[in-house]
Amino acid sequence: MENKNILIAFVLMLAVWVGVNLLFPKPTPPPEQQVMVQSQSTETVQVSPSSTTLSAAPTLAGQAISVPQQERQVVVKSGRYEAVFSSVGGRLKSLQLPGYSQTTADDSLPVSLVDAGAPQLATLRTQGLGEFDITGEDLYALSVDEEQIVLAAGEEREIVFSSISPRGLKVEKIYRLRGDSFDFDLQLRVTNLGSQAIRGATSLSLVQPWDESMKSNRYSFVGPAVYDGEKVHTYDIEDLDEEAPVYGSDSVWTSFELKYFMSAVVALADAGEKFRIEKNGDLIQNSIETPYAILAAGQSVSADYLCFFGPRDLDILEASGHQLDKAIDFGFFGILARPLLTVLKFFHNYVGNWGIAIILLTCIIKLIFWPLTQKSYKSMKAMQTLQPEMQKLREKFKNNKEQLNKEIMGLYKTKRVNPMGGCLPMVVQIPVFFALYKVLLGTIALRHAPFAFWLQDLSVKDPYYITPIIMGVTMFFQQKMSPSTMDPAQAKIFMFMPIIFTFMFLNFPSGLVLYWMVNNILTILQQWHVNREPKVVVA
Prior knowledge:
The protein is an alpha+beta fold. The protein is built from 13 helices and 20 strands.
């Protein structure tokens, strides 16, 4: 096979791959292959999330809890988030990230991961299962009198919500909050204050309101996910109309993911018996159910969780532990993507501009592959010198393709030219390209990151399409400068590639277009250098 045919095949393959990513979202594996359903049947008491009934807890002798008859809220401010907890269900009603704005405007509001306009929409909902008569709308007493708590870096604070159910179950939701972290601990403790044994379990749910504007797009996934200890399973919202997937006790965490942010709950120790994802009207619920237990009089059972509400930043997720960093999927080439992201951050720490960091990283990659690329171009140049002889062979054996191939391979051997020499060095670079593609496409580092002039957000498309057009022009010149071994039919196909790529890149994040454009410019310089060298003489 001729070297240029292989090159064309690679370019076409790349065009198809990018085109498929543009036109079709990443498919979700068939749910029946993902889901591990617990075989034991358990009784579940379901409460409609749209219920607005607020039930005050009774008072048992010796266990008096002063429960307010109306909702109380406590605001917690830290360097990472501003949260509002409600006495209705002891739930998280609001959470904003002051360090992340919704837009690049100076007066932009902070990103809001939880915004419950009504109590029943608040997240971290507690539900009783079996004989545990606990609902997400129970009124709780608060352990603090303040209406606002400010946490400094390194400071920790505990907030306890307490309630007693009609059957005599004392329920405590104990939040342990930290001033310098996006995560916090939650312990759910149930104590039987009655005289009779009670069998049941509890469920803790992330509650996420949903509307069509939140659908996944060609660049990113938006929706619920579960990490089963080996793989992260994601679900498009449409999938939940057909079923409610359930995972077993080997699972680690469940989450609702946006492109750059996520809400997640990690089941610690034996807190997670089942991980369930459900769609209830306009609400998505990621629930973690505890194992069923029989509580004798005076006995308690507890479940511990780690709750995370923050950015999908690799370093931050790794610091929180429990393999939350698995939520960032770099795909097949993840083993290369993470080091590339580390180098990109290294450059940014020195230059303070993500656009310049991308340019520096592109230059480093180009230098690393310079010898291989140089060899490739020289091989292509040598192949070009053989074209007259190859054309004669084509005319001579035009009716005998088998003999033609033998003669061409013999010519390669005689002239000591490797037909794969121009292609193999390029193939070696493919994994690096795809890895960097994934990094630049999804890293939160580029969100709202300005470069220069009109490029004020490298995570979105060029508003004036200037960089994609320049990229297309550089691709055209790169093509013109490359040695040509194509027949006229191939040349006609190849001449449209810059146009096709330009249109494909129009809506790509400008940071990714910047990388490709700079890479093309460096390639042109290298090709110019090769073309200035003395003509290759094939023996």
